[in-house]
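Write out structure tokens for DUF3581 domain-containing protein.
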Amino acid sequence: MFKDFYTQRGEYVVISAEQASHFAKGVAGDYNPIHNPDARRFCVPGDLLFVLVLTKFGLSRQMEFRFTNMVGADTPLKFSEADDGTIHVCDESGKCYLQVVRSGDITHDPAVVEAFARCYVAFSGKNFPHYLKPLMEQHGVMFNPKRPLVIYDSMGFSLERLDGFSPGLTLNQSSLEVNGKRADARLEFSIESAGESVGVGSKKLVVSGLCDYDADEMAAIVEEFYRLKAAYETV
């Protein structure tokens, strides 16, 4: 599962810029320029770390993910589980990038884990423009078009069961809390299977470098998003 997007070196996982970028575009449909291999502030997608946690430790009924630092390319990462079940993703110096708290039943069924991972990542990849653009327009703010920065802060979910479902995620509610030059975006979603609700969840994003909303600037950014998407899909 997802083995093309990382390299295992002993007890450490290493993710190259190319692997991270390929995951962002090819699996998540995420064309955030921060995931381009040549980006000045390149970072590994948080959703790739999320996927690797599920792959290595299974899917629990309740899970909370908190992203504490941005991961650069080729950073050796150790995925470890504490005695209390808490999972940490840290580098060789002990710097932590992701903390995961979980509870309830766990499944390691590869089909279930992969189905949930893929449906969540597909949902998460729609952050922009699908979810964030309407929020920013509503509040009259946007990220700096020259340096768009949207950072993954946290996410969590609760599942009613772990077996016999083919999950899909639907956005229920979204909000944007503006505080000076930054804003917190919250996306609440439902998890369904065959028309039946099987869980709920939410995620938080931080939008930095806010400026006044400019419809023309935003239209150009959205146009570039779809240009990049079309270019990638024709390769």
